[in-house]
């Protein structure tokens, strides 16, 4: 149960965050079909990865050993994290600007 929580939890958060980010893009304004298509594509690619991941891991472990299988898993996790770096930077900047704006408001300091 704990492994499922740590695997499916981040997957759900990532797919929701990316779908929400792409769904709020200017080009999709009020087009609900386009938003649904974006969500379905992201979910489908995640499901494809979930289906192919064990196959690749099994093949690598049989051919090259478990050390290499774990190296492949670590590499794929790193690449997935790297692909989300841009979104993370955007969210951190948004939160920083939001918090620093409140701090200036309460302290009544001039804007720099």
UniProtKB/TrEMBL annotation:
Q: Does the keyword Disulfide bond apply?
A: no
Indicate the transmembrane segments per the record.
36-57, 69-89
Name the major location: membrane
| Keyword field | Membrane, Transmembrane, Transmembrane helix
As for membrane topology, the entry says: Multi-pass membrane protein
Task: Tell me the Gene3D superfamilies matching this sequence.
Answer: MFS general substrate transporter like domains
What's the name of the protein? Glycerol-3-phosphate transporter 4
Q: Please report the organism this UniProt entry assigns to the protein.
A: Geodia barretti
């Amino acid at each position: 149960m704990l492994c499922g929580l740590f695997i499916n939890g981040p997957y759900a958060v990532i797919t929701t965050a990316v779908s929400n980010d792409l769904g709020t893009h200017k080009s999709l304004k009020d087009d609900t079909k386009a938003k649904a298509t974006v969500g379905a594509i992201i979910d489908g690619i995640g499901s494809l990865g979930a289906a192919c991941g064990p196959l690749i891991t099994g093949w690598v472990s049989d051919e090259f050993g478990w050390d290499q299988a774990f190296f492949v898993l670590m590499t794929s996790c790193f690449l997935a994290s790297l692909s989300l770096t841009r979104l993370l930077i955007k969210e951190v900047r948004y939160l920083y600007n939001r918090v620093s704006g409140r701090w200036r408001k309460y302290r009544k300091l001039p804007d720099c």
